[in-house]
């Protein structure tokens, strides 16, 4: 069978399996009803599940998993697609709707109509020609309904209006729509201390997946302020009279609000201090009306304070139909803030909020099944679905996943297979790292009053560095007279400019101050490039045992920053390079996005090259990518003895589904163009998009209880995409709540890397993030790229010096 | 894909807002809006608590009326369930209604049924509106209609509107009736004699008015929509209501929404606890600021001055004449409940001091005798 065009072959079973089933094969009636077993769709799924037996090479143990997807059964034989024409032409869509509605006797009362395409669950005798009278001018209109397609009821063409139907089901259950999701504010948890409420809710969508039609359902929460924005402003006013406007801007701009009069949410982009509710705006009809009058007339709402400023929301371009960017002005009195801004967060609040929102797999499962039960128990709700012949499975979908084989962790002298929760904290602090850089000449900077802490720190470093194979000489001590930023900055600057052999700079600061941190990092990453470590003195307080643990971690981190290597895993692929990419988007207006780019430089993937590109808004990522690759190879050529990698695997974070095509059509060709600048260099490539924010979730059974799946659990069928080759992997171990898998979408594979090998490589990479002695959610290069982009975009606002490009200075 | 692109909502044959298609150019605001505004003004005048709209169609009038703060019960009735269902969810409480529950209670119910049938759910209303309804009724239904509305439901006020056929000649494109579903359209004399006879029979007085003024010089044509406002002459005696009313329900409830309200103890308690904590925090802050400024006189002028000026007056007034005053002991602030109760917002919510104590029990940290709110000074970050 042929490969789907434009996409590389993955080997493995998926592409073949998919090609077996042409897109619109009519499915015999009743087939869907038989698919109650987990081995759902006859064509691809079965193939997958049988694959382990057919191919003994596939590694990993089978594991029973429950998905947060609910099978949708289609009872109808087909859905019929018609084209509706009005002659003479009727421009107004609502008139078209009304005219077609009058012929319900012909169409039946179950219709989905967008103004020209009509879907019905029944076949109309052809041809259909109807008459209607246009009321505005008494013109007689001929409506012709012509059949265009007979669709499987599970066709993805039906999915958009199935979703409309399902949203109505949710409303029948008395759920409140906010944006795309549904909430139950009457079930709110009120956190009086913070004047916050937590509303439980669901995100629901019907999607066509490899395993057929599914309802994807997840539990969500909305955190919302009990006070109107006006009240929040009053509180700010009381607390900071002098910097009131500035403070309001800081606390309010960027947050998402809901209003008292509709179900919509708006992001606040600005505050207009010159406007009040007494100002006017122009209605759609052209009429000028004040905000006060408008809310009174349209919603019966009386605005009490007439001297409040107005909040400004700028709709994104695509949200306005005519391309004109109209501002939306909102009245603070009528709006409520959702979410918690970072600046207002304190650890206690986060803890209290998380306590309310975290759900164990069991609780999560209970929530999902209770929604299914409510739909089943409310006749109107299930009837609503049945109008289109749809019914929901009474339980979540259960199927089989695989646990990838455990990975061996290699240190300098020893290697081991980690225990079940995939943590190796003990091993890395007791045994020698793969390579350790001796700290012969390093600076210790601290304010005078922290003298004692500094002494203890050095002593602890000396006593703990031995087991991990590090050598720490006495530091050059720089004592500061106070802890003002200028003192730090000036001293560090003068020391670094007079000394050029400094390997590392260690700073102790007396509290977590972002401005001080920024000043130090700017000096050490941009102006006088040197690896640097900043320690907050609070983390050094406490008992000796705790201090030792902290110092061990700091030592490991410093070793990475100096260019040392902590641990590795077996990498069977030869001449391989792994690249990780992530993007940091600044929240503040007009700031550029930052692309973090990290590439491996040796075969065991323990040495990393890094590069940052600041990108103007609307600039193509592809340009920056080319730049990164070019500078990478320039750096590598002399080092690698002109022997460039033959296989390049790129993990790309920060790409949404809608951007996948852009990656494939623009970015990848740009990268390939870059290779051509080297003579006879044509590496094979694998490009994998990494998605963390996904709604797919799964758990596994353990003694009749749902629990989080063990790290290494992979699902590559049933809930996977019809259009892309993707799989879900849970690499990390989560102690609380449900662990959310990461979705990997392979958009290009010219390396002939089998799907199984790609999964295993991905899992291996999740072991290699040296800031965490365990597995993490994403491949290490992605996490490194993320750290790098964040440091550059959020702290430095500048590209770090290229002199640091071969060290993990950004950890 | 977008939801708006798909119109798979319940279709229905009857469109009650016919003027949207016909005479829209003739009237600003459109006539249907004028009719609704007429009802809204009437509600503003008579302040009914229970309002029913017969032939409520897509519930636009009910939606407009839900913001009238006097109304506690709203009901809609229509013969066509699907037209009601089409937009009925806009009668549901909005998410933000749960954040600031209103003081009044409000229940909105939609019934599917005929105005020619009696159902006890329609009893006890203050105002019943029949906007552009009667002209859709067949002869037998029209005959039963007065007995159901005036005899059985017997509200204090009934409003009936219907097209004035004399005006039709001024509407472009109207041949016989304004809408194909109309069974008749009356002229002014026909409507008024029917209304007067009905009013006389059931003990109501009736006044005639309308919306949609005729063009100057043609005043004798009358309003485009003629309206009769019926007022019951005598207060209804409770015995007559009880004895002769059937109890069998014939209507089918298609929708019911109960709005969150402070009448509901759950929401009242939330509101009271929130207000108590808010008030206590203000007092605490002001106390702490006061203490600070006493310890360090230089600080008073710079850092804490704004907040002091904000609170000292209010607090000063409050504690005057009270036997107990808020105070700080160690890192606990003690605020007597009586002080908190003296804040108008708290007082208004609870009414009585006893109710305050009952509502916050177990929700706010109190001293052992329950008379004082205790707050740790360390809670604030």
Shape of chain A: globular
* Fraction in helix of chain A: 25-40%
Given this structure, which CATH class of the largest domain in chain B is correct?
Alpha Beta
Summing up helix and strand content along with how strands pair, one would put the structural category of chain B as alpha/beta
Work out the strand percent of chain A: 25-35%
Q: What share of the residues of chain B lie within helices?
A: 25-40%
Please outline what is shown here.
The complex is a heterodimer of chains A (811) and B (381). With 811 residues, chain A is an alpha+beta fold.
Notes on the protein architecture:
The complex is a heterodimer of chains A (811) and B (381). Chain A is an alpha+beta fold and 811 residues long. Chain A has 21 helices and 39 strands. The longest helix of chain A is centred in the C-terminal third of the chain and has 19 residues, at 544-562. The radius of gyration of chain A is 30 Å and the shape is globular. Chain A starts with 13 loop residues before the first helix and ends in a 15-residue tail after the last helix. The model of chain A is unreliable at 1-57 (pLDDT under 50). Chain B has 381 residues and is an alpha/beta fold. Mean pLDDT of chain B is 80; it is low at 1-25 and 298-323. Chain B is elongated and about 90 Å long. Chain B has 2 domains: 3-258, Vaccinia Virus protein VP39 (Rossmann fold, 3-Layer(aba) Sandwich), CATH 3.40.50; 265-296 and 305-376, no CATH class. Chain B has helices spanning 31-46, 60-65, 81-87, 139-153, 188-202, 238-244, 265-295, 297-302, 305-319, 337-341, 344-350, 353-360, and strands at residues 50-54, 73-78, 107-112, 127-131, 157-163, 204-211, 225-232, 252-258, 327-329, 332-336, 372-376. In chain B, helix 7 packs across helix 9 and helix 7 runs antiparallel to helix 11. Chains A and B meet through helix 4, strand 4, helix 6 and strand 12 of A and helix 7 and helix 9 of B. Chain A: InterPro entries: ArgoL1, PAZ_dom, PAZ_dom_sf, Piwi, RNaseH-like_sf, RNaseH_sf. Chain A: Residues 228-339 form the PAZ domain. Chain A: Keywords: Cytoplasm, Developmental protein, Differentiation, Hydrolase, Meiosis, Methylation, RNA-binding, RNA-mediated gene silencing, Translation regulation.
